[in-house]
From TrEMBL:
<feature type="domain" description="Ubiquitin-like protease family profile">
    <location>
        <begin position="33"/>
        <end position="197"/>
    </location>
</feature>
<comment type="similarity">
    <text>Belongs to the peptidase C48 family.</text>
</comment>
<dbReference type="GO" id="GO:0016929">
    <property type="term" value="F:deSUMOylase activity"/>
</dbReference>
<protein>
    <submittedName>
        <fullName>SENP2 protease</fullName>
    </submittedName>
</protein>
<dbReference type="GO" id="GO:0080090">
    <property type="term" value="P:regulation of primary metabolic process"/>
</dbReference>
<dbReference type="GO" id="GO:0016926">
    <property type="term" value="P:protein desumoylation"/>
</dbReference>
<keyword id="KW-0378">Hydrolase</keyword>
<keyword id="KW-0788">Thiol protease</keyword>
<dbReference type="InterPro" id="IPR003653">
    <property type="entry name" value="Peptidase_C48_C"/>
</dbReference>
<dbReference type="GO" id="GO:0005634">
    <property type="term" value="C:nucleus"/>
</dbReference>
<dbReference type="GO" id="GO:0060255">
    <property type="term" value="P:regulation of macromolecule metabolic process"/>
</dbReference>
<dbReference type="Pfam" id="PF02902">
    <property type="entry name" value="Peptidase_C48"/>
</dbReference>
<dbReference type="InterPro" id="IPR038765">
    <property type="entry name" value="Papain-like_cys_pep_sf"/>
</dbReference>
<dbReference type="GO" id="GO:0006508">
    <property type="term" value="P:proteolysis"/>
</dbReference>
<keyword id="KW-0645">Protease</keyword>
Amino acid sequence: SPLNSLFQAMESEVSAAFDSGEPEDILSRAFKLTVTREDICTLQPLGWLNDRIMNFYMGLLVERSKKEGYPAVYAFNTFFYSKLSSTSHKGVKKWTKGVDIFKHDVILVPIHLRTHWTLLVIDLREKTIKYFDSLGQKGDHVCKTVLKYLEEESREKRNIELTASEWTLHSMGTEEIPQQNNGNDCGVFVCKFADFISRDKPIVFTQEHMPYFRRRMVWEIIHQQLL
C-alpha cells in the first residue's frame, strides 16, 4: 500500500541518518541551529538528547503554533533556566528583546538539570505554571523562580504588575504524567510533553512509545516538519 511504502521510505531515511556518512555532516539547518549527524545520533535507542536536538524540536513546535487552530507558543532555549537561576532577571532580560512573551498562550521552558531533562510550562490563559518531570521529582522551587521572572519581565516590559496570588504553581505527580523507566529517555519525554501541550492535547503516551518517537523525531528534524 502507499502508506506502507511511505513508512519504508521514512524508515530507510532514518537508518541512513544514523549509519552512513561522517559525524560532522549537516543534516538540518533552521532556527539559527545546525544539526549534524552526531547530534541526530543522540536519537538512537538509549542515546542522550543534546541541547541542539532539544532546541531544534522546540523550534518546530513554535513554527507549528503559527498555524491556525493551535495555541500561540513561545519556547525559551535550554540555556535560559540555568542562566536565570544563577543570575536573576537581569541576566536574561535581553533574551526577550523585541518579544512580548505575554502575547502568547503557552511558554515552554526546557530545563537541563546536570544529567536530566525536565519541562516547565507557563499557561498564560489559565495563569498556571506546571513542572513536568518523567522521574517524578518535584520542581516547586523552579516554578517559583519562573513566576518571579514573569513578575519582573511584566513590570519591566509592559509596566504591568502581575498578581502572584492569582497564579497556580504545580509539580505534576507521578500519577498525572507518564514516567520513564530508564535513565536515557528524559529528553524524549520532555519533547513529547511539549508536543502534546502545545496542541492542547491530553498526555497519553507511555515509555513504550519512546523507540518510535525517537525515529519519528529524526525524520521530523531532517525534514523540518512535524508529522
